[in-house]
């Protein structure tokens, strides 16, 4: 896993020709229900080296900006990187246990200094970069899926999928087609 020049969080084979970009919010109920599709994609395409996965945070709920800052700062402080934090934030959100103490929960779970994590969130700026990219990519809701071929800008998979979720079979087909190009 690594970060894009604008800070976006990516996992997978750096040489994979295609990237699935998800614009989502840890606290968004639709994003939580869509996560099994993303997990399947990661298992079948990212872990096998065929594609990359890029997560972009778009705040939609009351605590979303704070949670996005916690994710960014915890990823910077935790040696295991962003995706273990990503998984834990989704787990907490699915449990319905999201409160303003979520930063403390993440600090405890990943053995981070809570005061430092909290201080960092006041300077966290990844949400701005993700929001700007989302605006350029036409993102109007979460989750929204885009595809990036090589270093191109994220694009809709097709006209029928300009907004929102994309069925797994459509994602898989788009990834396989992009690999051939």
Run of helices and strands: EEEHEHHHHHEH
Enumerate the spans where pLDDT stays under 50 for 5 or more consecutive residues. Answer: none
Question: Count of DSSP E strands?
Answer: 5
Q: Roughly what is the average pLDDT, rounded to an integer?
A: 95
Number of helices: 7
Secondary structure blueprint with pairings:
Elements lengths: L1 E2 L5 E4 L5 E7 L4 H18 L5 E6 L6 H14 L4 H14 L6 H8 L4 H8 L4 H11 L7 E6 L18 H13 L1
Helix pairs in contact: 1-7, 2-3, 2-4, 2-5
Keywords for this entry:
181 residues; alpha+beta; five-stranded mixed beta sheet; 7 helices; globular
Task: Give an account of the 3D structure.
48% of the residues lie in helices and 14% in strands. It has 181 residues and is an alpha+beta fold. The protein has a 5-stranded mixed beta sheet with strand order 1-2-4-3-5, with helices on both faces. A hairpin with a 5-residue loop joins β1 (2-3) and β2. The longest helix has 18 residues, at 29-46. The two termini are 25 Å apart. 40% of the residues are buried. The model has no long low-confidence stretch (mean pLDDT 95).
What's the short version?
The chain is an alpha+beta fold and 181 residues long. The protein has helices at 29-46, 64-77, 82-95, 102-109, 114-121, 126-136, 168-180; strands at residues 2-3, 9-12, 18-24, 52-57, 144-149. Helices cover 48% and strands 14% of the residues.
């Amino acid at each position: 896993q690594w970060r894009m020049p604008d800070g976006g969080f990516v996992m997978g084979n750096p040489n994979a020709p295609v990237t699935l970009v998800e614009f989502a919010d840890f606290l968004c109920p639709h994003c939580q229900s869509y996560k099994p599709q993303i997990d399947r994609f990661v298992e079948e395409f990212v872990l096998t080296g065929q594609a990359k996965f890029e997560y972009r945070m778009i705040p939609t709920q009351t605590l979303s900006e704070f949670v996005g800052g916690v994710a960014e700062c915890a990823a910077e402080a935790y040696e295991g990187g962003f995706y273990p934090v990503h998984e834990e934030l989704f787990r907490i959100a699915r449990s319905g246990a999201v409160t303003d103490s979520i930063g403390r929960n993440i600090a405890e779970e990943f053995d981070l200094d809570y005061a430092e994590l909290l201080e960092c969130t006041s300077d966290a700026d990844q949400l701005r970069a993700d929001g700007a990219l989302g605006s350029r990519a036409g993102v109007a809701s979460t989750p929204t899926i885009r595809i990036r071929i090589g270093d191109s800008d994220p694009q809709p998979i097709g006209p029928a999928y300009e907004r929102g979720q994309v069925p797994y079979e459509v994602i898989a087909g788009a990834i396989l087609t992009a690999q051939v190009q």
